[in-house]
C-alpha cells in the first residue's frame, strides 16, 4: 500500500510544489505515494464560499468555521479511514524525526492547513485533529508547514531515496546532529580534508564521525543530549 496524503487547503495550487520534482516528484509519478488536494471552500454553503467568521468574544482577525471544515474533513477521510488527521499549527507538538518515521510507515495522512487566526476549537476536538508544529514561528498559513512535513515523510518511503542508508545516517536519526561532510578536492583554499577520512580505516572513520556528531550536538543542540540521557 502506498502512502496516501490528502491536504485540505484554501490554496490547492500550492501543491505539490517542490514535491513534484526531483526524487519525490519521480516517486509521485511512479505511484510510490499519492497526493489529493481538497479545496475547503467547496464545502461552504453561501454564494461567496465563506469559510471564516469573527472570533467569539471579540478580537482581531477571523476564525475558520467548524461546520465547513468538518464537512471537508469528512469528505477527505470518511468514517473508518485509518489515516491520522493532522492540523498544522504553531501551538502543536513539535514535529520530530520519530513522528516522521511513524507517519512514513503508515497508510498516509490527512493534513489540514489552517489560515487566518486559527481553527474553531470544536472541530479540532470533534474530528480528533493532531496539532503539529514545525517550529516556534508564525507562517501565513499551514501550507508551507504541510509541504515540510510531507517532504520529511516522503523521502523515507521505500524506493524514494537512491541510497537507503541516507535515511538512517542523518541529523536526529540517532538523537544527534549529523557529522561534517567533505569531498574532493583534497585541499581547497588551504583547508584539507581530515586525514582520518582518507585513511581507509572504517572503524576510525566511524569513531571520528561519532565524536564530531556528539561535539556538534553539545555545542548547538544540548537539549537533544538531555533527551538522550536516562533519568
TrEMBL record:
Its main location: cytoplasm. One of its GO terms (cellular component) is cytosol. Keywords: Cytoplasm, Methyltransferase, S-adenosyl-L-methionine, Transferase, tRNA processing. It holds the Pfam family tRNA_m1G_MT. It is found in: Cytoplasm. It is an enzyme of class 2 (transferase). InterPro entries: Alpha/beta_knot_MTases, tRNA_m1G_MeTrfase_C_sf, tRNA_m1G_MeTrfase_TrmD, tRNA_m1G_MTases_N, tRNA_MeTrfase_TRMD/TRM10. Residues 6-225 form the tRNA methyltransferase TRMD/TRM10-type domain. It catalyses: guanosine(37) in tRNA + S-adenosyl-L-methionine = N(1)-methylguanosine(37) in tRNA + S-adenosyl-L-homocysteine + H(+). NCBIfam families: PRK00026.1 (NF000648), trmD (TIGR00088). Specifically methylates guanosine-37 in various tRNAs. HAMAP family: TrmD. Belongs to the RNA methyltransferase TrmD family. This is tRNA (guanine-N(1)-)-methyltransferase. It comes from Aquibium oceanicum. The gene is trmD.
Amino acid at each position: 500500500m502506498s502512502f496516501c496524503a490528502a491536504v485540505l487547503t484554501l490554496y490547492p495550487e500550492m501543491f505539490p510544489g517542490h514535491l513534484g520534482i526531483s526524487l519525490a516528484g519521480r516517486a509521485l509519478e511512479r505511484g510510490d505515494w499519492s497526493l489529493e488536494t481538497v479545496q475547503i471552500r467547496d464545502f461552504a454553503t453561501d454564494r461567496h464560499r465563506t469559510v471564516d467568521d469573527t472570533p467569539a468574544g471579540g478580537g482581531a482577525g477571523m476564525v475558520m468555521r467548524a461546520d465547513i471544515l468538518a464537512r471537508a474533513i469528512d469528505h477527505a477521510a470518511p468514517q473508518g479511514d485509518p489515516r491520522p488527521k493532522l492540523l498544522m499549527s504553531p501551538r502543536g507538538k513539535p514535529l520530530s524525526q520519530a513522528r516522521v518515521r511513524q507517519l512514513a510507515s503508515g497508510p498516509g495522512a490527512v493534513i489540514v492547513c489552517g489560515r487566518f487566526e486559527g481553527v474553531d476549537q470544536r472541530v479540532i476536538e470533534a474530528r480528533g485533529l493532531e496539532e503539529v508544529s514545525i517550529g516556534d514561528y508564525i507562517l501565513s498559513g499551514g501550507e508551507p508547514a504541510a509541504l515540510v512535513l510531507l517532504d520529511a515523510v516522503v523521502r523515507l518511503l521505500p524506493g524514494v531515496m537512491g541510497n537507503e542508508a541516507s535515511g538512517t545516517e542523518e541529523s536526529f536519526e540517532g538523537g544527534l546532529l549529523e557529522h561534517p561532510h567533505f569531498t574532493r578536492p583534497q585541499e581547497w583554499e588551504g583547508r584539507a580534508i581530515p586525514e582520518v577520512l582518507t585513511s581507509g580505516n572504517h572503524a576510525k572513520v566511524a569513531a571520528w564521525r561519532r565524536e564530531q556528531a556528539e561535539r556538534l550536538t553539545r555545542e548547538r543542540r544540548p537539549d537533544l543530549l538531555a533527551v538522550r540521557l536516562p533519568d
